[in-house]
Description:
rod-shaped; 2 helices; mainly alpha
Amino acid sequence: MAERDEQAQPPHDDLADSLNDLFTSVSTMIKSQLQGTNNQLEMLEKMNVRVGEEYKGLGDVASGLRVFVEQLKSKSGNFDQYVQQIDAIEHQVTEFEAVISMLDNYVSQLESKVNAIYQLPPPTS
């Protein structure tokens, strides 16, 4: 009867077990690599979302700066009139200083002439 039990059971196949272990290991390795790739892609997606939010915020800042620059331009346009008036006044002051200098020279010359004319000889007694 012992011989029948041995014959009834198929012989143990080491090669089949080894191949089964090999295929299981390769399958596990591929699943792990795919999971790692999936994790990397999820992280990349999150990074893209974060960068997109950051760029959107920068776009809002740039928009605000553009509006601010336009406001400054309109305000500086209002000052152009005053700058032109100041330039005209500066030009007039320069001309006025030149006239004053000429008058000062003329007055000095007149004063010298008057002093020369009215210079009295010392009194003789």
